[in-house]
Amino acid sequence: MTVRILVVEDEVKTADYLHKGLSESGYSVDVAHDGLAGQQRISDEHFDLIILDVMLPGMNGWQLLQFIRSRWQTPVLFLTARDAVEYRVKGLELGADDYLVKPFSYVELLARVRTLLRRGPPRETQLFGVGDLSLDLVQHRAMRQGQRIHLTNKEFALLHLLISRENEVLSRTFIASQIWNMNFESDTNVVDVAIRRLRAKVDDPWPHRLIHTVRGMGYMLGLEP
């Protein structure tokens, strides 16, 4: 499977250089030229590694790294002209996996990329809990107030997606792409039907709902709508 790398870099020449070099090294490379664009790509797609500049328009690298670490453990390599020790320390303390200063050698960059990718993906959280609902990925078991909830594989995957992004509104298109690996047309009701069936098992037997509809936007799971 092709490794996907996202480069978030506002210097066009540097971004093009990285795109060309990493693509020739066999990676699938995407580029975002500002922090907000990078945030959107990271929210919508899966990447195996993120190469991130610090000084970015819209949202700087520190802020984008904090956003990433609040949700995922994707390896992040900071690539920046900020070479002071305090900047390196800050980047690492915020959760960066490596820090390379510009100007850089492509050979060194490639070696660091390969090292980060060899570490493999971090172990995913195996237990999730919201209120009186719990989800155990290892035992493939959902429980609420101590009672087992019997789910189909798709229902379990849908609940996992919702609970792993607690209090985050997920669009129907995003849910469809993650669960069915397809981009459904906006008028389809496949997601609505799946949510309705999941609610019948997860919410209906109990007084407090956890799966909420956000009108015009999508669905979320949390204690508060």
At a glance:
The protein has 225 residues and is α/β, with parallel strands linked by helices. It has helices at 12-24, 35-44, 61-69, 85-93, 106-118, 153-164, 172-179, 190-202; strands at residues 4-8, 28-32, 49-52, 76-80, 98-101, 127-130, 133-136, 141-144, 147-149, 211-214, 218-221. Residues 4-117 form the Response regulatory domain.
Radius of gyration: 20 Å
Give average pLDDT, whole number. 87
Give the overall shape, derived from the CA principal axes: elongated
Number of helices: 8
Model regions low in confidence, pLDDT < 50 over at least 5 residues: none
Strand order of the largest sheet: 2-1-3-4-5
The span between the termini is 38 Å
CATH superfamily of the largest domain: Response regulator
User: In CATH's first tier, which class of the largest domain applies?
Assistant: Alpha Beta
At CATH level 2, the architecture of the largest domain is: 3-Layer(aba) Sandwich
Structural class designation: alpha/beta
Order of helices and strands: EHEHEHEHEHEEEEHHHEE
Percent strand = 15-25%
List its traits:
single chain; 225 residues; Arc Repressor Mutant, subunit A; 2 domains; four-stranded antiparallel sheet; 8 helices; elongated; two-component regulatory system; transcription; transcription regulation; Two component heavy metal response transcriptional regulator, winged helix family; Sig_transdc_resp-reg_receiver
Can you characterise this structure?
Helix content is about 40%, strand content about 20%. The radius of gyration is 20 Å and the shape is elongated. Helix 2 runs parallel beside helix 3 and helix 6 crosses helix 8 (about 190-200). The chain has helices spanning about 10-25, 35-45, 60-70, 85-95, 105-120, 155-165, 170-180, 190-200; strands at about 5-10, 30, 50, 75-80, 100, 125-130, 135, 140-145, 145-150, 210-215, 220. It has 2 domains: about 5-120, 3-Layer(aba) Sandwich (Rossmann fold), CATH 3.40.50.2300; about 125-220, Winged helix-like DNA-binding domain superfamily/Winged helix DNA-binding domain (Arc Repressor Mutant, subunit A), CATH 1.10.10. With about 220 residues, the protein is of the alpha/beta class.
